[in-house]
């Protein structure tokens, strides 16, 4: 049986998080932050894209490799959120909400990795 990446709860959370990030990047305070906005968009998209891409390889070993990359992208996103907050481009409420959500995604990716490492059945 094939499991589609669209059905993974962690993928759905990553997409929801991406939408939130894209919405805050339209804020007036970030109007001139072209390179930072672009990098944050790419890092955020990398989370869901790596979950999707890794799931299509058909083996847990490959999927796990892509999940580690997605987890790394979460750290990159959080780092950029810290920069935006330090520059006072986003307020504390937005920062805390997005940072907490990204931390939750990071934890869920980690738990998914651990689950796949113990599983004897490949995703496909």
Keywords:
de novo design (two linked rop proteins); 23S_rRNA_IVS_sf; 0% strand; 4 helices
Inertia-based shape: elongated
Strand content: under 5%
What string gives the helices and strands in order?
HHHH
Q: What's the rounded overall pLDDT mean?
A: 92
CATH class: Mainly Alpha
Biggest β-sheet strands, sense, barrel? none
The gyration radius over C-alpha positions equals: 15 Å
Distance between the terminal alpha carbons, to the nearest Å?
Answer: 6 Å
Task: Label the CATH architecture.
Answer: Up-down Bundle
What's the total number of strands?
A: 0
CATH level-four homologous superfamily name:
23S rRNA-intervening sequence
Number of helices: 4
> What kind of assembly state do the chains in view correspond to?
single chain
Percent helix range:
over 70%
Q: What class would the helix/strand composition place it in? A: mainly alpha
Identify low-pLDDT runs: none
| Structural domain count | 1
Organism: Chryseobacterium aquaticum
InterPro entries: 23S_rRNA-intervening_sequence, 23S_rRNA_IVS_sf
Protein name: Four helix bundle protein
Structure description:
This protein is mostly helical. It has one domain (9-118): 23S rRNA-intervening sequence (de novo design (two linked rop proteins), Up-down Bundle). The chain has helices at 9-24, 34-55, 60-86, 92-118. InterPro entries: 23S_rRNA-intervening_sequence, 23S_rRNA_IVS_sf. This is Four helix bundle protein.
Short description:
By secondary structure, this protein is mainly alpha-helical.
């Amino acid at each position: 049986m094939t499991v589609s990446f669209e059905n993974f709860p962690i993928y759905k959370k990553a997409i929801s998080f991406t939408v939130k990030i894209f919405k805050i990047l339209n804020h007036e305070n970030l109007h001139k932050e072209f390179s930072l906005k672009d990098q944050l968009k790419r890092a955020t998209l990398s989370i869901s894209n790596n979950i999707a891409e890794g799931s299509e390889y058909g083996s847990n070993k490959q999927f796990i490799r892509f999940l580690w990359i997605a987890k790394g992208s979460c750290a990159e996103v959080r780092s950029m959120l810290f920069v935006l907050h330090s520059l006072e481009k986003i307020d504390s409420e937005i920062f805390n909400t997005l940072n907490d959500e990204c931390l939750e995604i990071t934890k869920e990716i980690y738990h998914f990795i651990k689950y796949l490492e113990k599983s004897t059945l490949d995703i496909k």
